[in-house]
Design goal:
Shape: globular
Helix content: 25-40%
CATH topology: Glycerol-3-phosphate (1)-acyltransferase
Strand content: 5-15%
CATH superfamily: Glycerol-3-phosphate (1)-acyltransferase
Structural class: alpha/beta
Largest sheet: 7 strands, mixed
Oligomer: single chain
Radius of gyration: 17 Å
Distance between the termini: 18 Å
CATH class: Alpha Beta
Number of strands: 7
Strand order of the largest sheet: 1-7-6-2-5-3-4
Length: about 220
């Protein structure tokens, strides 16, 4: 971590611990080094800093390309390892850029739903996850986030002191689908993307909020 990133990381951990009474489970399931895709559900602006604060390695984020036009904001986003995303482009998640960061051994945060949930429930994954999975060999970690919708939904102006929890799942195995995708035609490739999306959705749903797991790695 750079000094600026580490300073912000410590501040976020303090805020989540004191104000949101956070709980972090199974953070050790994330490889400490090497490229990895972090794939959580998304319900709040609190989700990106929550994922980053829960891990002891830097996380690469996505941010709207237009935000980088403002020098102070652009500088700040770069300190947080943000990748500019052009939502008007054909590949809205900047697939090639994400792949390059994974190749460089970075932990990339990707919200498969594409945007924040309007009601707190997990939404189906978009095709971006499948595209990235079949074009990389990086492990995919499903992540379940709970409580951030109640703390700061899209309808809230100020975050409320609600408990939040983040649970990291075991890496998903997409080896067979990655191999098949190399020679699949367009129709089958789309089906593979949908299968990857369903696998992620089921895995995140399985990380139930009622799971009283004994491991706490915050």
């Amino acid at each position: 971590m750079s000094p600026f990133y580490r300073f912000s990381w410590r501040i976020c951990r303090l805020i989540f611990a004191v104000y949101f009474r956070w709980r972090v489970d199974f953070a050790d399931r994330v490889p400490p080094v090497g490229g990895v895709i972090l794939a959580p559900n998304h319900a709040s602006f609190l989700d990106p800093p929550l994922v980053g604060a829960a891990l002891h390695r830097p996380v690469t984020y996505l941010a709207r390309k237009s935000l980088f036009r403002f020098p102070p904001v652009g500088w700040l986003l770069r300190q947080y390892h943000c990748i500019p995303v052009d939502r008007e482009a054909a590949a809205p998640v900047g697939l090639r850029t994400l792949w390059e960061h994974l190749q460089a051994g970075q932990a990339v945060l990707l919200f498969p739903e594409g945007t924040r949930s309007p009601d707190g429930r997990i939404q189906p994954a978009q095709t971006g996850l499948g595209l990235l999975v079949v074009r990389s060999q990086a492990p995919v970690i499903p992540v379940r986030i709970q409580g951030t919708f109640e703390a700061l939904s899209r309808h809230c102006v100020w975050p409320r002191p609600r408990p939040v929890r983040i649970v990291f799942g075991s890496p998903l195995d997409f080896a067979a689908l990655r191999q098949e995708a190399r020679t699949a035609d367009r129709t089958r490739l789309k089906a593979i993307y949908r299968e990857i999306a369903r696998t992620w959705f089921d895995a995140v749903q399985a990380l139930s909020p009622t799971d009283e797991s004994p491991s706490r790695n915050g």
